[in-house]
Automatic annotation (TrEMBL):
It comes from Brassica napus (Rape). Residues 3-97 form the Replication protein A 70 kDa DNA-binding subunit B/D first OB fold domain. InterPro entries: NA-bd_OB-fold (IPR012340), RFA1B/D_OB_1st (IPR003871). This is Replication protein A 70 kDa DNA-binding subunit B/D first OB fold domain-containing protein. CDD domains: RPA1_DBD_A_like, RPA1_DBD_B_like.
């Protein structure tokens, strides 16, 4: 990592940072201030007017060198990391190919169910969870802002048999419902948000991950 700045050291006082990052989650969120967003374990945003410039260089799971970045304070809800700051790409930001970080680095950090249920965790931050689906409702269709939206409720349990309710909306609801129909005899593992947060969330059923294999073995 010689020549690269540690993510923990990034601060807004300059833009000439040089980092090596693995893109662990990539999504498009078209809002007034949105664009492409990436994260590990600092959130980064490409503004709408710069999306076409950087879109071809960014892909989930890829490692990239990034040079010349703007940093601002991270605030508000739906924060994807605990870092004090977030990255904004500039027109002068450079994205280059570099040596890959280890495949095992995936940014997945499941939290304790009890910390969710007792309110210990900051509700402004998105969290990762892992668990076995023990109950699942039928898919409902609800009217949200005048638009019909699918909804499904599940209950997860952890290794201590603590139960955690989970609500999924939109395509997440139908995807999980279909998977449950085809995998009735398997333990289903879910990771990422407790209620999906727009396109930021990622739902995986029995993904091949070290954390999941260890969970299933127990």
């Amino acid at each position: 990592m010689a020549g690269f700045n540690p993510v923990a050291d990034l601060k807004p006082f300059k833009s000439m940072w040089k980092i090596r990052m693995k893109i662990i989650r990539l999504w498009k969120q078209f809002t007034a201030s949105g664009g492409l967003t990436i994260g590990d374990k600092i959130h980064a945003t490409v503004k709408k007017e710069l999306v076409n410039q950087f879109d071809i260089f960014l892909a989930e799971g890829k490692t990239k060198m990034m040079i010349n970045l703007s940093l601002n304070h991270s605030c508000g809800s739906y924060r994807t990391t605990n870092h004090l700051y977030k990255i904004s790409f500039l027109a002068t930001t450079r994205v280059k190919i570099c040596e890959d970080l280890p495949r095992a680095i995936n940014g997945f950090q499941p939290v304790n169910y009890r910390e969710i249920l007792d309110g210990t965790l900051n509700s402004d931050h998105l969290v990762d969870v892992i668990g076995q689906v023990v109950e699942v409702s039928q898919v409902d269709v609800l009217s949200v802002n005048g638009k019909d939206t699918q909804n499904i409720t599940l209950e997860l349990r952890d290794l201590e048999d603590v139960r955690l309710p989970l609500v999924l909306w939109g395509s997440f609801a139908s995807d999980v419902s279909n998977a449950m129909q085809t995998r009735r005899d398997e333990a289903l593992i879910y990771d990422r948000s407790i209620s999906n947060a727009y396109n930021v969330s990622d739902v995986s059923l029995n993904p091949y991950m070290t954390e999941v294999e260890e969970f299933k073995s127990k």
